[in-house]
Amino acid sequence: MPTCCVHLLPYHADPRARFALVRAAPGACLLDGGRPGADRGRFDLFSAWPEQHLQPAANENGRAFLARCRTALAGLGRAEAPEHCELPFTGGLLGYLGYDFGRRLERLPAQAVADLQLPEATFGLYAWALVSDHQRQTSQLVFHPSLPEQRRGELIALFEAHGTPATPGEFRLLTPFAADLDAGQYRAAIERIQAYIRAGDCYQVNFAQRFQTSWQGDPWAAYCALRDACPTPFAGYLTLDDGAILSLSPERFLSVHQGQVETRPIKGTRPRGRDVAEDKELAAELLASRKDRAENLMIVDLLRNDLGRSCRIGSVRVPELFALESYPNVHHLVSAVTGELAPDLDVFDLLAGSFPGGSITGAPKIRAMQIIDELEPTRRSIYCGSLLHIDSRGEMDSSICIRTVLLQHGQASCWGGGGIVMDSEWQAEYEESKTKVRVLLQTLERLSGF
């Protein structure tokens, strides 16, 4: 079996200095574990200059697009990691699926306005990556066997040069962020969701509001400021032709390693306290909350069903339930669902059967997505989609794109939301939707002098 070539570099815990060398290149994509500020992500990886660019055609359904991605990956060819070298990526696909890619997988209404022009999915096919393993404290260039020797030498020279990369340019918002919905509109939407719950249509619906403003300057400067303020284990930066996706997500969607599948849904949130005593009190309140535990359990059941479509019968388990994870701005309630991929299925089948993630739709999933389309005035674009990599061996890891800012066409968009159940109080949900993204909005506003 062909094997990747690995070129060792000095270990860097923070990938930004090296990624800055390529961040303006076509297809530059960083999947960032948030080290050293965050401590849960084992790997960082990034690449640029893809061999191939993939986006869905106008009327192409989701499974057909994923089949094209499978074919492109097979064309690159499987490559193994060298012996005694653990790698999450040996060449393959990097990119995103937007939340609205789900429309290509399920029949959904079209009431929400599609006012952001981000393609519903974009992948590049990459024959190299720079990977850092924070457990082993190694950094290495990884070359797929198909990458020409000359190109390998150019990349080695680029990353071994001792010059300092250019500092980020300036970034600023032209005005503070403004919400798309006022409190009255938000309340009416929550009451409508609760009417659907009373009628038996659904058990839970994830409802979000959008915050927007105009921007100018260098998106990389914005990402660096956000990462300093809110390091997270599933962060990412993806260069667009006229902007970037900046994601500071704490949530894994799906990972596949040697056929073992894991998803880690977040459901349940409290703000961090102003002092140690208040912080402990808020964390204990979250852990003891019957409402939040019930909400979390509904999504765990939904994800057990989603994984069951693609996993070996009897293999789906819940090894972790209602664990506390704490971040600079919030505490979260997190669970884990695992399974073993069925022998006749692959990661593309898993994505087709599970996307978008149930933690950001509600239950039952399709009815919740229909209600979201009815009540959210605009489509979600990258919000609640996924940044992901799929390598030549079929290994995958992916995020849920919450805590994410889309910078495109001079417009900055950020979303905050939460799961609505029968005993939700609209005022508390309204405040929670702002709490979840306050650190992002305020960081960019302070960077802009507001």
Automatic annotation (TrEMBL):
One of its GO terms (biological process) is L-tryptophan biosynthetic process. Residues 63-138 form the Anthranilate synthase component I N-terminal domain. InterPro entries: ADC_synth_comp_1, ADC_synthase, Anth_synth_I-like, Anth_synth_I_N, Chorismate_C. NCBIfam families: pabB (TIGR00553). Residues 185-436 form the Chorismate-utilising enzyme C-terminal domain. Its EC number is 2.6.1.85. Keywords: Transferase. The keyword Transferase applies. This is aminodeoxychorismate synthase.
